[in-house]
Amino acid sequence: MSKGLRLSERIGRLDYPIRKYNALARSLEEKGERVIYLNIGDPLKYDFQTPRELVEEAYKAMLENHNYYASSEGVKELQEAIAYKEKTWNRVEIEGRNVLVTSGVSEGINALFAALVDEGDRVLIPDPSYPLYINFADFYNADKVFYPMLEDEGWIPDVDGLRKLVDDRVKFIVINNPHNPTGAVYPRKVLKEILDIAAEWDIPVVSDEIYDALVFEGEFVSAASIASKDNVIIGLNGFSKTFLVTGWRLGYIYLKGPEEKVSQIRSAILGFLMTRLSAVTPLQVAVARFARRRPTFLEEVKRKMDERRRFTYKRLNEIPGFRMPVAPLGAFYAFPRVDVKMGDEEFARRLLVEEKVFVVYGSGFGPSGTNHVRLVYLPPIEVLEEAFNRIERFVRRSVGL
Ligand SMILES: Cc1ncc(COP(=O)(O)O)c(C=O)c1O
């Protein structure tokens, strides 16, 4: 009898809830079923398209032979264009050399943990949280500490709750604004209070702002734009969602704060990024050129998303057992509470099998996601309407409320 292959113990700790039931969905489609995918935050899977000008820039960059390995920190022209984008979009002043280009924010999160976190280090992450923060904390054996968010106030961080969790073993505090999975957009005051706690304890703040331009109500404030001179900000951002290029895999990390700390963190992260050589060069060149222009295409993108957001908020609250006290204000997710007797994972799996609607179970985002589901409101209204009708039918038929 052959000896079983022994896989790493580490890999067993990874569990990415958003794609966990992909194979099941595919098998349903192979049987001829029409699955409505509300699980993945990818506008390109619906009726959104990459701006034509940007695609043309990519083609041009390839013809110009920008097809070599770039430097690990990124093409200089893109580092500078990102500094320009941050200044004009978010009022963040950074130097191009303090920008590191990554293969998506996903790689940025991995690089961040790889560079800063040792086994047992504490990291503060929101509850609920975008799963990669949970995944990489587990992968690197960090001690992940969830800080509370206030659902009835639209899922904004509970600053007093957060304060109680801070001590000098905390490596960094993660904020994600606008927030995945809840669509929360943080008020300036809440952000400032978190920044002040971080400055007091000399802890870097990691601010994931990948949905920065996708805010439909209220004001988006970038953490780095209101940080004090003592704050160390590790900004994470990217082009997947706002430039509609999820498949290009381009993101960035920027650093702002006291020079010595910034320089230490920069070289640690760059040390990791060197091992993967570089992000895709011609696409970096294309985005660099495009990012200098006024993003007029975003107006129409936001108009469509906003219409779908309003419809989703209204319609979900009509479904028995569903409750969403405050509308999501940004990004493109809804995270309703679903008060049902079966667990949320069972709910999501059965909804997929029985009604062919693919949502993500809330507990995959952290303990407070229990009895919730996350869904994207990116599809056209007719598709959303069909999905919500199927959800309502499922709830009425099979769920003990
Ligand atoms: C909060 C957040 N961060 C990071 C990512 C990863 O994005 P990408 O790797 O495409 O840049 C996502 C994707 O959904 C996200 O929602």
From TrEMBL:
<dbReference type="InterPro" id="IPR004839">
    <property type="entry name" value="Aminotransferase_I/II_large"/>
</dbReference>
<feature type="domain" description="Aminotransferase class I/classII large">
    <location>
        <begin position="35"/>
        <end position="391"/>
    </location>
</feature>
<dbReference type="InterPro" id="IPR051926">
    <property type="entry name" value="Ala_Aminotransferase"/>
</dbReference>
<dbReference type="Pfam" id="PF00155">
    <property type="entry name" value="Aminotran_1_2"/>
</dbReference>
<keyword id="KW-0032">Aminotransferase</keyword>
<dbReference type="GO" id="GO:0008483">
    <property type="term" value="F:transaminase activity"/>
</dbReference>
<protein>
    <recommendedName>
        <fullName>Aminotransferase</fullName>
        <ecNumber>2.6.1.-</ecNumber>
    </recommendedName>
</protein>
<dbReference type="InterPro" id="IPR015424">
    <property type="entry name" value="PyrdxlP-dep_Trfase"/>
</dbReference>
<keyword id="KW-0663">Pyridoxal phosphate</keyword>
<dbReference type="InterPro" id="IPR015421">
    <property type="entry name" value="PyrdxlP-dep_Trfase_major"/>
</dbReference>
<dbReference type="InterPro" id="IPR004838">
    <property type="entry name" value="NHTrfase_class1_PyrdxlP-BS"/>
</dbReference>
<comment type="similarity">
    <text>Belongs to the class-I pyridoxal-phosphate-dependent aminotransferase family.</text>
</comment>
<keyword id="KW-0808">Transferase</keyword>
<dbReference type="InterPro" id="IPR015422">
    <property type="entry name" value="PyrdxlP-dep_Trfase_small"/>
</dbReference>
<dbReference type="GO" id="GO:0030170">
    <property type="term" value="F:pyridoxal phosphate binding"/>
</dbReference>
